[in-house]
Structure formats: C-alpha cells, structure tokens
C-alpha cells in the first residue's frame, strides 16, 4: 500500500512539473555573479602596484663644467678670445686657437700650465722674448727695436699699442734705427720716454 502511494505521488509530481514547463513557468536557472577584483582603497589611481618600482628617469643630472675666458695672442693661427673649460692646459688653448703658427717658439712657454679666467696666453716667435706668466716678475732683458713686433714692443716701459705701431711704421719708411736717439723721431716719443727706453732696448 505504501509503495502504491509513493508511486502515485511521484506521478503527480511529474505531471505538475510537465504542466509548469509547458506553460513556461519553470524557474530559470540562477547564475551566481563572478566577483570582480578591486584595487585597495588606499591605492590611488595610476599608482604603482606594491612591490613594483617606477623606472628611473633617463634625464642625466647637470654636470656642466665651469668655463674660463682666455686671450690667445702671438704666433697662433687664430688669435683672439676663447672660452675653455676650467683646468684647460696652455697646449690645449693653443689648439683651440687653430694651433701654433709657423715659426712659433713653443719651448719658450709652459705648455703644461693651466689657464685662469682673464689670462693672456702669448706664443712668441723664434728669437722673440717670451712674456712672463701672470704674477711673475719679468727677467731682465732687452728688446731689439729693429726686429721686435708690436706685441713685443708693448713690453717696453711707456710703449702701448699706438706707440708700438708708430715705431714699426717708422722702421718701414726709414729703415732700421741707427742709434737709440733715433727713437725721438717717432711721433709720440719724447725725451722722458727715451730715457726709460735707453737701458731696455738694443739695435
């Protein structure tokens, strides 16, 4: 008897289920939502994930060396004012000025010394007296007024660029000076200047 009741109940359940399916009333399958991972609230948008380092900047730090201004004169191919890094040697400054000119006496100057801001590097010609380094006392020497160029003549007491040009101009027009007193014929040289020059020049 109990078995029959169970069978009847099963048949009734199957019938009810069939009716519901036929009417479209069967419950739709439920799909569980898939949780989406979210960033921690403390992490700002665009921030690097923990444990990941930001790439180092490829911008190099500024390492510009200080520069000094040097006047290169005398027997060089391109005399003038040049800008060179601090600590540059005299030999390198001469290269910047185009190199030594023909007839330059490089042994007369210290090519290994370093230059300073505002310094003049003077390269003498062969046989020409070298100019003293800044801060040194010139050695006692005389200058041949018949062969010296303008830069060398300017080393004489009382002789500037204008008088040096006058001396050279007089030589070109009249030939070499025969006596020291002939310097009085140069425009701008008077007795006082001549006395200062008398022991400083040779002919």
What is this structure's SSE topology?
Elements: H1 2-22, E1 67-74, E2 80-85, H2 90-96, E3 120-123, E4 143-144, H3 150-153, H4 161-174, H5 191-197, E5 201-202
Parallel strand pairs: 1-3, 4-5
Antiparallel strand pairs: 1-2
User: Count of helices?
Assistant: 5
User: Terminal Cα separation, in Å?
Assistant: 158 Å
Helix/strand structural class: alpha/beta
Spatial order of the strands in the main sheet? 2-1-3
Sheet of most strands: 3 strands, mixed
What's the overall geometry? rod-shaped
Strand content: 5-15%
> What is the ordering of alpha helices and beta strands?
HEEHEEHHHE
Helix content: 25-40%
Number-wise, the strands total 5
Q: Low-confidence spans: pLDDT under 50, at least 5 residues? A: 54-63, 134-140
Mean pLDDT level: 77
Based on CA atoms alone, the radius of gyration comes out at 49 Å
Task: Describe this structure as you would to a colleague.
There is one protein chain. With 203 residues, the chain is of the alpha/beta class. It is 26% helix and 11% strand. The chain is built from 5 helices and 5 strands; from the N terminus they run αββαββαααβ. A 3-stranded mixed sheet has the order 2-1-3, covered by helices on one side. Strands 4-5 form a two-stranded parallel ribbon. β1 (67-74) and β2 (80-85) form a beta hairpin. The longest helix has 21 residues, at 2-22. The protein is rod-shaped, with a radius of gyration of 49 Å. The N and C termini lie far apart (158 Å). The relative contact order is 0.08.
């Amino acid at each position: 008897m109990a078995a029959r009741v169970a069978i009847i109940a099963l048949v009734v359940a199957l019938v009810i289920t069939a009716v519901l399916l036929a009417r479209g009333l069967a419950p739709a399958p439920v799909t569980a939502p898939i949780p989406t991972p979210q960033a921690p609230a403390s992490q700002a948008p665009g921030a690097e994930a923990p444990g990941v380092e930001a790439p180092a900047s490829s911008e190099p730090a500024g390492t510009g060396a200080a520069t000094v201004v040097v006047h290169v004169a005398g027997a060089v191919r391109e005399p003038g004012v040049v800008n060179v890094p601090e600590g540059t040697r005299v030999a390198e400054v001469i290269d910047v000025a185009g190199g030594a000119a023909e007839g330059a006496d490089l042994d007369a100057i210290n090519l290994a010394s370093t230059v300073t801001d505002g310094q003049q590097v003077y390269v003498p010609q062969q046989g020409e007296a070298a100019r003293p380094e800044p801060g040194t006392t010139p050695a006692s020497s005389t200058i041949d007024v018949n062969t010296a160029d303008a830069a060398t003549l300017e080393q004489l007491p009382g002789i500037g660029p204008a008088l040096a040009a006058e001396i050279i101009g007089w030589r070109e027009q009249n030939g070499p000076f025969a006596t020291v007193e002939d310097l009085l014929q140069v425009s701008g040289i008077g007795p006082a200047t001549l006395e200062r020059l008398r022991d400083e020049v040779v002919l």
